[in-house]
């Protein structure tokens, strides 16, 4: 076989290979073109709609979170308003009750000053006592209660110590006398009880 014939044979093989490659490229282009034709324009529209749906869902999630926060804030405002109304209802009578306390004090003093041996005074005292009990019962219905700490431990939150005195056999810081009762309105102190409190005996120096 000559050198010329060998060269011609290689050239034919190369040509055949090039044809095969070209045919493959053409088929690939046709396939890609067919695929592109398949997704357009309907698939493109679907893709656009899916993107729009995702964006809308994200917006709805944000708005839902805002609504939840707004509802929680409204609930807090409503609860605080209810608490304020309840406090106003409980303590609206505070000033009025405080004005009644001197009247109660005077009636108690009048009863305490009565000479029980005098029948005339005794009858008057009984009338005053009935009036006092009616008044105390009426204010008690509205949450006004007396603070009468006789023989109880001294409590600075409810009692006002007017003096201190050493009393044998009585523990220190015990209320030994109530000079004026205190009063509370629904648990809030409107006047402390004025009291006398026991104190400890002075220590004796036994070192001498």
Automatic annotation (TrEMBL):
The keyword Repeat does not apply. It is found in: Cytoplasm. This is Protein GrpE. Homodimer. Keywords: Chaperone, Coiled coil, Cytoplasm, Stress response. GO terms for molecular function: adenyl-nucleotide exchange factor activity; protein homodimerization activity; protein-folding chaperone binding; unfolded protein binding. It comes from Thalassomonas actiniarum. Pfam families: GrpE. Participates actively in the response to hyperosmotic and heat shock by preventing the aggregation of stress-denatured proteins, in association with DnaK and GrpE. It is the nucleotide exchange factor for DnaK and may function as a thermosensor. Unfolded proteins bind initially to DnaJ; upon interaction with the DnaJ-bound protein, DnaK hydrolyzes its bound ATP, resulting in the formation of a stable complex. GrpE releases ADP from DnaK; ATP binding to DnaK triggers the release of the substrate protein, thus completing the reaction cycle. The keyword Coiled coil applies. One of its GO terms (cellular component) is cytosol. Its main location: cytoplasm. It comes from the Bacteria. Belongs to the GrpE family. GO terms for biological process: protein folding. Residues 46-80 form a coiled coil.
